[in-house]
Design brief:
about 240 residues, mainly alpha, 10 helices
Amino acid sequence: MKQLNIKCLLTCSMILFALVASAQQKNSRDYLRSGNRLYRDSLYMKSEVDYRKALELDSRSARTYYNLGNALLFQQKPKEAMESYEQAVKLETNKMRQAHIYHNMGVILQSQKQFGPAIECYKEALRRNPADDETRYNLALCQYQQKNNPQDEQGGSEDQNGDKQKEQDKEQQENQKQENQKQEQQQQQPQQPKEENMSKENAEQLLKAAMQNEKNTQERLNKSMQRPQQRRLEKQW
């Protein structure tokens, strides 16, 4: 009888353990589904709570990490979103989903003007999904921004900024010195033809127009960059 009771107790324990494990697995999926519903209703903070509960029960879910990253990004938490995407891409085995993750990582880095790392993320996404036109567009835009704004990515320390200011001051002094010499020569020589003065004014006007066109072009590109990002981030797995 004692042996029978022990066997019965062990059997009950095993059944209880299986039921607990099954309940945990079910709860993880339930939290994920609930988080997705909240996300679609734009309740990003509440969806974050459910995604984190799902991860407490299943910390190996690439899908949950990805969806959590999206919810964090819409709450203006790019650093936490990046950490979540990094976990997702480590766990994800599907190439198409990996491409989605790398795309969103590129979006974060590009918004922070880290163009070099963003370009690498977009390239990783395209290696897994070469047909993704949105990623290809963001890659081209990021390469354009890197080419035209190298100082944004490099940043620079205070010492570097100080050295740069010294160089600018020195250049201004040289320019002023040259300008003074020209004025002295003009006072000693006959009056210069009006055509030269007119050409200088025209050159300045053309330069200002070119700078304005560049500024307008950059503004249009920045606005257009938002469209592909928003479409991609709306998708939850």
